Structure to design on (118 residues):
């Protein structure tokens, strides 16, 4: 399994921005799709955004389209989630997930808290 290290969470006011990062420790993201999920208190974990490492194709949940941008840094083997125009509804623990369709590795980070105050 790939070890994932998340960073960048915190407290921000409504309308503000944060950038989350997810780095692979010990191996590369080759052949992986990297996803961000989030889970708010009392709610199920939900998909936020994803990027395919091989070709950079991205997908977004409707709730974050136009506000969040997922990107990859090949040199640093890191995926970033730039979050702009944050809303209180974006408050959640954000989890990085790495899925490899070849070896079926499905690894999760420990999560990072994002809190948006009104």
């Amino acid at each position: 399994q790939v070890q994932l290290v998340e960073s960048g969470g915190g407290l921000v006011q409504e309308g503000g921005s944060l950038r989350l990062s997810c780095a692979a420790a010990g191996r590369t993201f080759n052949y992986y799709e990297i996803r961000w999920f989030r889970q708010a208190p009392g709610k199920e974990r939900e998909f936020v955004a994803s990027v395919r490492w091989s070709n950079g194709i991205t997908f977004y949940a409707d709730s974050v389209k136009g506000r969040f941008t997922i990107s990859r840094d090949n040199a640093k083997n890191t995926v970033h989630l730039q979050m702009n125009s944050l809303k209180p509804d974006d408050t959640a623990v954000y989890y990085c997930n790495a899925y490899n369709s070849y070896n079926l590795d499905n690894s999760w980070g420990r999560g990072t808290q994002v809190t948006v105050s009104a």
